[in-house]
Amino acid sequence: MERTRWYKDSVIYQIYPRSFMDSNGDGIGDIRGIISKLDYLKDLGINAVWLSPCYKSPNDDNGYDISDYRDIMDEFGTLDDWKEMVNGMHERGIKLIMDLVVNHTSDEHKWFQESKKSKDNPYRDYYIWRKGKGKNGKRPPNNWTSRFGGRAWEYDETTGEWYLHLFSKKQPDLNWDNPKVRAEVHDMVKYWLDLGVDGFRCDAITYISKVEGLPDGKWNIGIRGDEQFTHGPNIHKYLHALNKEVLSNYDCMTVGEASGVTIEQGLLYTGEDREELDTVFTFEHVNCDTIAQLLPKKFNLVQFKKVFRRWQWGLFGKGWNSLYLENHDQPRSLPRFTGDYGEYRKEAGKMLAIAMHFHQGVPYVYQGQEIGMTNYPFKNLDEYQDVLVAYVRKVLGVFEPLLKGFVHKVFLKRARDHARTPVQWTAGENAGFTTGRPWMPINPNYTEINVEEAMADPDSIYHFYKKLIAYRKGNEIIRNGLYKTNYTSSKDIFCYERWYEGKRLFVICNFKNKEVKFKVPSSCAYSHCNLEISNYKDSPETLQNMTLRPYESMVYLLV
Ligand code: NOJ
Q1: Predicted local confidence at residue 12, as pLDDT
Q2: Ligand 1 centroid vs 204 CA: distance in angstroms?
Q3: Residue 18 contacts residue 267 (beta carbons within 8 Å)
Q4: Which residue, among 194, 124, 196, has the nearest Cα to 161 in the 3D structure?
Q5: Angle, vertex CA 260, rays to CA 257 and CA 264, nearest 5
Q6: For 172-190, what is the HEC assignment?
């Protein structure tokens, strides 16, 4: 099968189905809701959709805990609805990337239900079971912590052993060292590819191989043991086999979620000659406003630019980057990376779009980002619905009441819930998301920020995204150009260039809600200059020294 690597010319839109569009009034987004919005997606111009999990699940972690890999979640509809959706996408030239969650299953998956029955059950070794420590085995087998907080092991009375869960206790880790598990995964991946899927976003993929013997680990950024289960000893062997035996037979793409990945490791996963994954999601840039990946700190633009430079150079000619600012695990990018935008929400949203979309890689647009949706004004800890918040509160235990105010302040900036409030379609009841009671509250700003309004306003963030996506299509400078940066130590301006065959795109983004002076770098000589795109109507037509207005951003073509 010839691999066209179509993703290199694509912009991917992420749908978190629970919050996208509800078709039957139960307050939960569903597949028929997605079907009703396919024309909207086509019109936006995106090439593919990444759909967060829509498989059967008891929803401890909103679908990232799968109880049947081959069927659709009851709240979302049926496999027939799904088939209609994928056909509808393909008819409109949109590809479908499904979430592949195979580090763990739900504890309600039939494999786990069997596995816990007895030590000699044929499914026992599908998961990672160990005897506990101490006289009666009542202490966990090692000191690893779960990614959500607390220990990574759960004791099970039936067989008196512990099972490993790197996420919630309802998400037991699969044992990838068991060839039967790998064969099951290959088979399941093939099942979806044969049904027409065009690729996979591989959830938590860097955790699938654990160090033999599961030794105790060290503390590292709020988690213990990750050096024992991240990029483990057999990971490349397992991914290469998945690629050779299944993926390479289809013209599909993969993107691996790779928390904590370095460029060297990124190249091992995505290097084209290695035949493992096509791209990875890295996290360094979304940690430029955090301490230990959780506590909020002031956004550091200088660090952010440095991260982009390293990854643009690091993968150039060898792999392919993923470009994102938002997803279902991150708070909204407004005001996260822009500070308080006041009356400049539209300018700030467009500026972030420019900053991202002229890099080399696959840009992702998360649902609602294209209309500039913002964080939700949560009032207290009880309003959050995420399992992660529940975990953190449980870990805090008796100290929670003492720290309540602080914990709430942290989540007000950092909670994943912010991205999970329903998409604001209209200014009408429940923002046009549902006729029922929405499963998550709707951001009160829906009367001003909604798709209907954005489509009617020619100057909206939505129309700007449309323009950018269209501009990117077939643009060889963006696809292949060399990356050069300017003003690397400026705390206000992100300025970079892309060079290709005697042409260059010169990108200037003012990240601040204030006027900032810009001086054309002395290295900048050209014979012809054209303003290609800008978030103000009257930005200068040629590149010159200027005072940038709040969030003013533009792209010039220099020849
Ligand atoms: C990453 C997913 O994006 C996140 O939502 C989920 O909680 C964990 N992996 C566990 O599957």
Answers
A1: 98
A2: 7
A3: no
A4: 124
A5: 95
A6: CEECCCCHHHHHHHHHHHH
* pLDDT level of residue 404 (50, 70, 90 thresholds): confident
From-to residues of CATH 2.60.40.1180 in the chain = 478-558
Atom of ligand 1 minimally distant from the CA of 167: 10
CA 244 vs. chain centroid, Å, equals: 26
Helix or strand or coil: residue 127?
strand
Which one, of 467, 494, 477, lies nearest residue 551 by Cα? Answer: 494
User: Which fold, 478-558?
Assistant: Immunoglobulin-like (2.60.40)
Report d(CA 316, CA 310) in Å as an integer: 10
DSSP string computed for 393-415: HHHHGGGHHHHHHHHHHHHHHH-
* CATH superfamily, region 104-173: Oligo-1,6-glucosidase; Domain 2 (3.90.400.10)
pLDDT at 199 over 90: yes
Q: How far, in Å, are 531, 535, 547 from residue 553 at the CA level? A: 11, 6, 11
257 pocket-lining for ligand 1 (C-beta < 6 Å): yes
Looking at residue 131, its pLDDT comes to 97
Query: What token pair was written down for 227?
Result: 């050096």
pTM: 0.98
CB neighbours of 100 closer than 8 A, spacing ≥ 6? 189, 200, 201, 202, 203, 205
How many C-beta neighbours within 10 Å does residue 273 have? Answer: 5
Q: Which of 101, 169, 392 to mutate to test the pocket of ligand 1 (most atoms within 8 A of CB)?
A: 101
Give the residue whose CA is nearest to atom 6 of ligand 1.
64
21 lines ligand 1 (CB under 6 A): no
Q: What is the pLDDT of residues 280-337, one digit of tens each?
A: 999 999 999 999 888 999 999 999 999 999 999 999 999 999 999 999 999 999 999 9
What is the pLDDT at residue 362?
Answer: 98
pLDDT at 400: 87
Radius of gyration (Cα) for the chain, nearest Å? 24
| Cβ proximity of 423 and 451 under 8 Å | yes
Range(s) of the chain covered by CATH 3.90.400.10: 104-173
Q: Which CATH architecture has domain 11-101+321-378+415-474?
A: Alpha-Beta Barrel (3.20)
Which one of 203, 289, 329, 492 is the catalytic residue?
Answer: 203
